[in-house]
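re: ur question from yesterday

yeah so i grabbed the chain u mentioned. its 273 aa long if i counted rite. heres the sequnce exactly as i have it in my notes:
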Amino acid sequence: MTPSRETLAAMLRENGLPYLLGITAAFGLKYHYSVAGAEALLWMLSPVARMVEFFSGIRFHWELYTGFVNLSSGIRIAPACAGINFMIICFSALFFPLVHRLQARAVKLSWLWLSLAAAYLATLLTNSARILLSIRLYGASIYGEWITPERVHRLAGTAMYLAVLVIVYLAAERLTIPRPASGPPAKEKNPPFSPGALIAPLSCYVTVTVVVPLLKGAYTRHGTLSAEHLLPVVGVSLTVLLVCALPGFLYRLLHKKGLTSRPKKQRTRETGS
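ran it thru and got these structure tokens back, copy pasting raw so excuse formatting
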């Protein structure tokens, strides 16, 4: 059912300021990343390097204008590895689709800061895990003419980013389910993990990683690189949709055949006086 013009106007009046602040935060992060050097990204690069050091035992040292490097292994944690784009994606997926569910304006503004903090933490952990996985994969004996280290690195990073994004979004989506004034929340009629629930996070991911570079002409300037980047994003996104759609499909199939458990109706006995 399409919302009426009055409903949309009321929603905009109620959420206009939070949306404006959210857009400012997202574009501010994007602009900061576009002009920042390694020194300006220490707030992201330094904790990532320390976590990679802790779990891998590889020592990094700071190199001016470059980032954290380990010369013996040739590993470099540079601005390109900061993961700021993923932080923007994660923040956008947490904030914009869910803030309208909250009631008080103070709660909405608190959700803005909470979304930024959650996106930052998710980026630190995911980026550190991605780099650790890349270190392991570069030493694996799985490469050939088509399976190159660069392609495996790109595919593994895309899969890890999308998996974390979906998990974080679904957790936040559950947390912000509208609840009645009194009593427990209403039971859902639809099965969990329906593909429709993933439209918001996947749209944010595709917008930042595909649509924005297309608008900037990045793919036309790097013809061969376009397919190398697009295929993992599209392929992993479709895989996530199919995997999440499978439980819902099976649920509906079993429900249609009457194989799912249904609540038994309680029989009432009439007692004579």
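noticed a couple things. Confidence is low (pLDDT under 50) at residues 267-273. also Residues 179 and 239 are 32 Å apart (CA to CA).
anyway ttyl
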